[in-house]
Design a protein that fits this description.
Helix 1 (4-59) packs antiparallel against helix 4 (154-209) and helix 8 crosses helix 9. The protein has helices spanning 4-59, 63-76, 99-106, 154-209, 216-227, 231-259, 269-286, 300-307, 309-326; strands at residues 80-87, 90-95, 116-120, 123-135, 140-153, 290-296, 332-335, 340-346. The protein has a 5-stranded antiparallel sheet, sandwiched between helices. A 3-stranded antiparallel sheet has the order 6-8-7, covered by helices on one side. The protein has 3 domains: 4-134 and 141-162, PAS domain (Beta-Lactamase), CATH 3.30.450.20; 178-257; 260-346, Alpha-Beta Plaits (2-Layer Sandwich), CATH 3.30.70.270. The protein contains 9 helices and 8 strands. By secondary structure, it is an alpha+beta fold.
Length: 351
């Protein structure tokens, strides 16, 4: 059978393992969510830059001005590798890398009808279609005028996500460490109460093995009860104390029943057989006289025959009371047989 202490340790280890897996999973999922937020941020930045550029071009269309604005966008946003504009069938590109490699990527955006994000080769390509309004007296419509696109370097995002992941792990493990210390402190506290309860049980077993048991056991066991720091353990301790007292009380009654005659209240023959050698030996060692008297009720059989055994028992019961009140505390009265009473008088002579 498994002890409660081992059960708690095993279940706590299982909880700790689950908690570690949950920490890693939460950090991973939150990092993915942050990555999605950054992709939306890329989309928002691209749309904002594209609309601004379209307003400028609508006011004054000039190749130099377009290149200047593309360059400005490139350097105002830290993680941008290249900026692309397709307008009126003409392509504009600003990059510090390979133009051919960038153009092959940007041409994915030519046919997009709405904002789209592509991830490729450690890069994030965001495409934003540009539309112009067509208005007449009867109809108002829009048509695609071109595409604005930005190529972002994913390394910058990867560094951010990595830092986010590590910070999440550190924070969660810090919380996990604090929680673990609290749980360990609780388990140690509970374990100490279990240890005290185990010691109390062992001490109780030692007391119950003794032949004679005084009232000192209650004080020693009650010290354990006061030491418990949890109400439930204290109640268990009180229960053990009360049950021990009950066992001692019942044991004492059983012992008395084994050596005391139930009818007369005097000692029975078992008592004489157990202690006669000790009584005689003590008298011999101490050198004090020892007198013995045998009392018998004359014609007791006639009482039983005439009045019945119930009346005879009443006579024996009354005789026992008379003898107990008539002898000294040091004297020993024993019901030896049916109506035969043996009385031992320590420190007394025959006279």
């Amino acid at each position: 059978m498994e002890s409660l202490k081992k059960f708690l340790v095993k279940r706590s280890s299982l909880i700790f393992s689950f908690y570690i897996v949950a920490i890693v999973a939460f950090s991973y999922l939150s990092t993915n969510d942050v990555g999605k937020i950054y992709n939306r941020n890329y989309l928002y930045i691209t749309a904002l830059a594209g609309k601004s550029l379209q307003y400028i071009v609508d006011i004054y269309y000039n190749d130099s001005l377009i290149y200047q604005n593309l360059k400005s966008i490139k350097y105002r946003i830290n993680d941008v590798d290249a900026v692309y504009l397709l307008l009126k069938g003409k392509e504009y590109l600003y990059t510090e890398g390979s133009s051919d490699a960038c153009l092959s990527l940007f041409r994915k955006c030519r046919n997009v009808e709405k904002e789209e994000v592509f991830s490729t080769d450690g890069k994030v390509l965001v495409c934003y279609p540009l539309y112009e309004e067509l208005a007449s007296e009867l109809l108002r419509d829009t048509q695609k005028a071109g595409v604005f696109a930005v190529l972002f370097d994913r390394k910058y995002l990867s560094d951010i996500l990595k830092n986010w992941f590590l910070k999440n792990l550190v924070l969660l493990f810090l919380l996990f460490g604090v929680g673990t210390l609290i749980i360990i402190a609780i388990l140690v506290h509970i374990s100490e109460n279990f240890r005290l309860l185990e010691s109390m049980i062992r001490k109780t077993e030692e007391f119950l093995k003794r032949e004679t048991l005084g009232q000192d056991y209650r004080e020693e066991l009650y010290r354990f009860v006061k030491t418990f720091s949890f109400l439930e353990f204290r109640r268990i301790g009180e229960l053990i104390l009360n049950l021990t007292g009950r066992v001692v009380e019942l044991t004492q009654k059983l012992k008395e029943q084994a050596i005391v005659d139930v009818l007369t209240g005097l000692y029975n023959r078992n008592y004489l057989e157990q202690f006669v050698d000790k009584i005689v030996g003590l008298a011999q060692r101490q050198g004090f006289p020892l007198a013995v008297a045998m009392i018998d009720i004359d014609n007791f059989k006639q009482v039983n025959d005439t009045y019945g055994h119930k009346k005879g028992d009443e006579v024996l019961r009354t005789l026992g009371k008379i003898i107990k009140t008539s002898i000294r505390k040091s004297d020993i009265a024993i019901r030896y047989g049916g109506e035969e009473i043996l009385i031992i008088f320590p420190n007394s002579r025959k006279e």
